[in-house]
Amino acid sequence: MRLIAGAFVVFLALTVGAAAAPITYTAVLSGAAEDPPNGSLGSGTATVTIDTVAHTLDVSADFADLTGLTTASHIHCCTAVPGAGNIGVATETPSFGLFPLGVTSGSFSQSFDLTDLASFNAPFVTANGGTAAGAEAALAAGLAGGMAYLNIHSEFARGGEIRGFLTEEEVPVPEPVSLGLLALGLAGLAARRRRA
Q1: What is the phi/psi pair of residue 161, to 5°?
Q2: Tens of pLDDT along 25-81?
Q3: Residue 59 three-state SS
Q4: How far is Cα 93 from Cα 74, in angstroms, rounded to an integer?
Q5: What is the chain's alpha carbon radius of gyration, rounded to the nearest angstrom?
Q6: C-alpha to C-alpha distance for 39 and 164, rounded to whole angstroms
Q7: How many CB atoms lie within 10 A of CB 54?
Q8: Alpha helices for the chain (secondary structure H)
Q9: At 23, which helix (H) or strand (E)?
Q10: Three-state SS at 152
Q11: Which residues pair with 135 in a beta bridge?
Q12: Do 93 and 151 touch, CB atoms closer than 8 A?
């Protein structure tokens, strides 16, 4: 009986931990995804992970073959319609602090403290209650709703040369019932071994 109770505790820990896990979003960046589309042959990918428990935002991007030299990059949020339209900048301006500027190809990775107002664009904070917590909640909701995009601006396209809407990365997660059945199965197996 103790083993079954222990298995149930493991089951609860797994299901509660899964609910609090960071969420990762990805995007493929292109000139065709800009609004309006442009003729850039540049391409890229972006990965954004938000953790509303740790209050962090991890952003990374790789890009190549831009037509113009980079001038800025940031996340825009939150469009009126998922996957479409233009909207103001949500994250720090004029660009991510570590983003490579003046190049046509490169890589970028930076972590942000979402309790720090400097991680956000001031008008985005103002529009969302005037606090870092309000801005974090709005950004998290925009990401979850498909209403946020990562944009790379250049001399070729000041409004944005390549961009992509961020969508949740598909990660297979066991259903809670499956985890419970697994825990019970393991408990039964352990009980049989002890009897043998």
Answers
A1: -90, -45
A2: 999 999 999 999 999 999 999 999 999 999 999 999 999 999 999 999 999 999 999
A3: strand
A4: 7
A5: 21
A6: 15
A7: 12
A8: 2-19, 122-127, 132-144, 176-195
A9: strand 23-30
A10: strand
A11: none
A12: no
pLDDT of 24 > 70? The answer is yes
**Sequence-ordered list of residues with C-beta below 8 angstroms from that of 97, at least 6 positions apart, any chain:** 110
Closest Cα to residue 60, out of 122, 112, 128, 118? Answer: 112
Q: Between β-strands 162-165 and 167-168, what pairing exists: parallel, antiparallel or unpaired?
A: unpaired
C-alpha–C-alpha distance, residues 111 and 46, integer Å: 14
CA contacts within 13 A on the Cβ side of 125: 16
Six-digit token string for 128: 């969302």
**Amino acid symbol at 135:** A
Cis peptide before 77 (omega within 30 of 0): no
> Tokens 């954004």 sit at which residue?
48
Task: Retrieve residue 90's tokens.
Answer: 């949500």
**Residue type for position 195:** R
Give per-residue pLDDT as tens, 53-68: 999 999 999 999 999 9
Q: Residue 30: name the closest of 59, 1, 67 by CA.
A: 67
